Amino acid sequence: MREPGKPRRSPAPEERQADADRTRRVLLAAAYEEFAEKGYAGARVHEIAARANVNKQLINYYFGGKEGLYRTLQSQWLKHEATFHDPGRPAADVATSYLHDGLDDPRGTRLMVWRGLSYAAGQETPDEEPEQDLSGITQRQQSGEIDPDIDPACLLLALIAMTSAPTVMPDLVKKTFGVEATDPVFRERYTAFVRDMVARLGPRS
């Protein structure tokens, strides 16, 4: 306890930095939940601040507003994606990594779906990745892992659809497989299917 009349000690620079880092972390965590639930258009700054239990003005201070917060989340996702989107790994391993990542934490997939729905509705959503990189697929075609006659853009879209489907349509999983998408039985069965489908993308003999 501070003694009466004794001047209050100013926080040390490292204490201020630690507090700033913590505030940024709780805001990003709260924003991830809010954007995943409601999309960019539906998310509200005051609700993000309430989730984080901080003053909403700190969103402007640390991120420059709602858009800056959203773009920071997108940048974090791209860094996370890079940890398993390795051109040196077999294509089947990369595909199942995307599948498992969505099953383990569906928020990233939900953000992608919300962005697509907003685009379909004519709404602008900030985007840190305005164009999809097809070089990973074309390199695999050149190396002989994937049939060079397959359209890379079509293949990318199909792979995204295949690996995100359980997260996007969990009700259909239950109706089709009789278990929830989170059930280990479904995970094992669908993982084997994804791996088999990707293996069939090799050059035709």
Gist?
The chain has helices spanning 13-42, 45-52, 57-63, 66-82, 91-104, 107-120, 135-143, 152-168, 170-177, 184-199. The chain is mostly helical and 205 residues long. Helix 1 crosses helix 2 (45-52) and helix 1 (13-42) packs across helix 4.
Would you write up a description of this structure?
By secondary structure, the protein is an all-alpha fold. The protein has ten helices and no strands. It is globular, with a radius of gyration of 22 Å. The mean pLDDT is 90.
CA radius of gyration is: 22 Å
Helix/strand/pairing class, anyone? Answer: mainly alpha
- How far the N terminus sits from the C terminus, by CA atoms, comes to 79 Å
Low-confidence stretches: none
Helix content: 55-70%
Mean of residue pLDDT? Answer: 90
Please outline the helices and strands:
Elements: H1 13-42, H2 45-52, H3 57-63, H4 66-82, H5 91-104, H6 107-120, H7 135-143, H8 152-168, H9 170-177, H10 184-199
Helix pairs in contact: 1-2, 1-4, 1-6, 3-4, 5-8, 5-10
Features:
205 residues, mainly alpha, globular
